[in-house]
């Protein structure tokens, strides 16, 4: 039996709101119902609906005017813009993934040689938390990111850490639900544990191999997510 995939309420609300706009034939300048009415229509809380609205505003499908209401932007332009934006974001993530393979892959190998007991303890803590959070179907993104940061530190190479730091703004997207999908990289979960074991066993070749599997799945997740976006 496969585990039930975690879907955030605001993701569902954003999709429903987009469908509502398109199915109702709303055009640029048309006003949407107020927040309270949208919450009632879709049976979601105010915080989830606000997050859904912020997401659609970031995609330039709607405009929120303080004190006046929520307005539709040009839907046809949005469709074209969104497609271009998704493709650009996909390309950026895949390019950063290539850099991660090179730079983070080197960190992984060095960590297998140089990780201190303190580094191993930090990785073990992160993996334990990931397991606990998965069991209760909670967000693992931040502890996942912390696990990778522990590997960078364990490499014992401040120059590599500096290189990663210089591109962190781009790398951070991997832990921020790209394309609004919470489970986009869920298939990588088990390989974090095999990667941790390889580092703990001081096996750099195995560590690099496990890391490459993670990156293969990351790139496949990006391809799958964008293929589902119309």
From TrEMBL:
Key word Transcription present: yes
InterPro entries named in the record: GntR_C, TF_FadR/GntR_C, Tscrpt_reg_HTH_GntR, WH-like_DNA-bd_sf, WH_DNA-bd_sf
UniProt keyword annotations, A-Z: DNA-binding, Transcription, Transcription regulation
Keyword Metal-binding: no
MF (Gene Ontology): DNA binding; DNA-binding transcription factor activity
UniProt-listed Pfam families: FCD, GntR
Residues spanning the membrane: none
Record-annotated HTH gntR-type domain positions: 7-75
Gene3D superfamilies cross-referenced by the UniProt entry: GntR ligand-binding domain-like, Winged helix-like DNA-binding domain superfamily/Winged helix DNA-binding domain
Protein name: FadR family transcriptional regulator
Protein species of origin: Cohnella endophytica
Origin organism lineage: Bacteria, Bacillati, Bacillota, Bacilli, Bacillales
């Amino acid at each position: 039996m496969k585990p039930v995939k975690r879907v955030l309420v605001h993701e569902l609300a954003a999709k429903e709101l987009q469908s509502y706009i398109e199915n109702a034939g709303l055009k640029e300048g048309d006003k949407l119902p107020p927040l309270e009415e949208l919450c009632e229509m879709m049976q979601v809380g105010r915080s989830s609906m606000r997050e859904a609205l912020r997401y659609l505003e970031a995609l330039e499908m709607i405009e929120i005017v303080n004190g006046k209401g929520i307005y539709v932007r040009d839907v046809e332009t949005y469709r074209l813009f969104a497609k271009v934006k998704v493709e650009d974001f996909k390309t950026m993530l895949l390019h950063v993934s290539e850099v991660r393979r090179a730079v983070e892959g080197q960190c992984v190998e060095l960590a297998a040689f140089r990780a201190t007991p303190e580094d191993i303890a930090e990785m073990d803590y992160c993996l334990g938390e990931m397991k606990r959070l998965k069991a209760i179907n909670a967000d693992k993104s931040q502890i996942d990111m912390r696990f990778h940061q522990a590997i960078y530190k364990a490499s014992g190479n401040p120059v590599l850490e500096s290189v990663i730091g210089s591109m962190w703004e781009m790398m951070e997207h991997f832990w921020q639900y790209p394309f609004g999908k919470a489970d986009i990289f869920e298939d990588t979960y088990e390989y974090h544990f095999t990667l941790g074991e390889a580092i703990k066993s001081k096996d750099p070749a195995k560590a690099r191999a496990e890391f490459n599997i993670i990156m293969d799945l990351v790139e496949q997740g990006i391809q799958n997510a964008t293929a589902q976006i119309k």
